[in-house]
Amino acid sequence: MKAKIFASIAVVITGAILLYAVIDFPDFGDPGSPPNAGVPGGAPAASRYYIQNTYRDSKVPNLVTAVLADYRGYDTMFETVVILTAGISIFAILRVVRRDDDPSAPEPVASDRTIDGDHHRIIVGITCRIAAPLIQIFALYVVAHGHYSPGGGFQGGVMLGASFILLALSGSLRETLARFSERDYTRLAFVGILIYAGLGLLPMWVGRNFLDYGALSGLFMTKGEEMARSHSMLGVEIGVAITVMSIMFAMFANLSTRGRLQGGL
Amino acid sequence: MSEHLPALVLLAPLFGTLVIGLFGLRDHRVCLPVTLSCLAVSLFSAIGLILRVSSGGPVDYFMGGWEEPLGIGIQLRADAINSPLLVVIAIVALLAAVFTIRPAGERDSEKTPYFYILFLLLSVGLFGITITADAFNVFVLIEVTALSSYGLVAIGSSKRCKVAAFHYLIMGTVGASFYLLGVGYLYLKLGSLNMQDIHTILASNENLADSRAIRTAFVFILVGIWTKMAFFPLHGWLPNAYSYSPSGSAAILAPLVTKVSVYVMVRMMVSVFGLDQLEANVEWGHFVVWLAVIAIVAGSMMALAQREIKKMLCCLIIAEVGYMVGGAWLGDPQRWGMTGTLYHILADALMTSCLFLAAGVFAKWLGAVKLEDLSGLFRKMPLAATGFVIGGLAIIGVPPTCGFYSKFYLIRGGIESGQWIYVAALIGSSLVNAVLFFRLFEIAYFGKNPVASHAHGHGHGDDGHDHHETPVVRREPPLHALLPVLVAAALLILLGIFNGPVVEFIRTGLIETATVVSTGR
Fold first, then answer.
1. Number of domains, chain A
2. Residue B25 is nearest to which of A37, A78, A186, comparing CB atoms?
3. Are B345 and B270 in contact (CB under 8 A)?
């Protein structure tokens, strides 16, 4: 009880300080606010630069993708690394490797088949099995269209991961793991980062800075640097999607089976 | 290649992580060589950066080549303030990696690759935080650092380390959220995330710098960072997290994570909000110095009460964080306090590294967890004990170790700014450290035969059966565990002897960064 009173006081103070500063904020949606127009004395506002020059720089209609995958791509790379780190931490804490872990081992009791009786399983299972490929195709669309319309690697990756989780939830984790095994998803999680960081590293061969995709116009055989940037953004989004997908599913598999990857829900 | 050094420092461990992830999970022998060579590349890059900074001033690196206008991309900047810290991070990480050559007994060997992956990711995060010049990028890398630290704490097999990691996770997440809120408020008022840009705006616009939102942002950033560095009232997570984690993890976590957080605070003060701005509000400085004094006293008192070696060292970290925060806020006109803080970051990282490595050696090869377990240490492990003594002398502040000089600069700052209470706390805490360590040395040198206390019970070590043999057997730990302790101890003395050039280097950078406001545009 004491802890609760303490915590409430802390929360009230924090909230009060936050509100105290709110009066000082620029109006909502004000085009003249500092993030939109910059502050006299400072550098011109980054957002204004993005709005005016993104299409010229990279021929990407979706500004948001250009900001996160190109101008601030370094941040996004580390955001992806954060997801990888979270996944690796979960493996490191939960994963239990036993000798009897191989798939030929007999099915443990109270396994996949007893959730709610079999008759529910048929309808749910078949529906989900039909839905999963559709979800995956839509997810691929979201990934591939990230630089034209809302979407991108994180969203697409989550959808891809969710399709596998759906299969594991409605059918059995064991069958899903047979298609998307532990070895595959751990590898793919790193491959995704490798695609991102590797695309960033390539420009360094020709003496340009890390993540300077413009230098890849030779690799992608594009006319100008703009299209090279656009293509690299797609590549980077694919890398993000692969990592996010693998880690999503890996977290589910580990958390739902307490790291044993057997039986489960 | 030399223009890519700022990126290379952290890309080497990042790619090392990928190599381990792709190949090391199958073949565990890949892990260690990859880890060592990546950290070596980082070390050489960091040394290269120091050389470039000392010859030509700060080195800028623009990710993706987005240089103009400032703030559209992400800038890395190595200057005299952070390049020595980069070298120290690389050294401490290397020493910790060498220390882990044989997997610790408490670690499941199946988890070896995960350990090294998290280890390298932690180094990536620390290098990234240190070298970046973008306020939001600091947050992203704090996340990388924090998540890998939680993993490294929880990777041990005991249940206690999982609980400690959970506590750490909650506190760390709160701290990171506070930092993020602060950066959000800054962006809302200033429209920029680049530190240099923010500094220019705040220095040229008095009204803006005094506005409510900016002040709130500063308070939130500070409280967030204080949580991360275990500044006294926010220190709850630290002792358990660092003392229950495996020795290999503690050897990199304890020296570096808190120190890099202190660096972030200094960076925010010096090159985001500006020292002139802070010196205009002296009462803030006095308030924080008081907090620091409380932290120093509390840390020292808690250290006196501890019965376990690692717990005691953890409490000393809390006191040391108090030194550094107080030193940074002294606000003396010659900035000796700030200089002392920056020098103490380097010194304390090495000291803590030395002591935690030694404590890891004692825990692993002697089964020594409690203070009394160290009895007869000098006869059993004379070399390792020497390393431990040098680390202890450095913490106490005995010349010629670096601990003496950092305290000297901090006290000089305290005297020049008239903060006598801080000076008194610093000296008092040094006395407490002397009491603590000389008690330890006494146990280690004159203590009774260790067999008597060990023959029954205390099954800590891997090789408990050895204790039944003749009592005074010289049994040094293997070279790979001994070497890091001795190297760290030697570096403590070297850093102390060469304190003049190091401090001169830091000071020029500090004064440059603090005074030069509108150049670099």
1. 1
2. A186
3. no
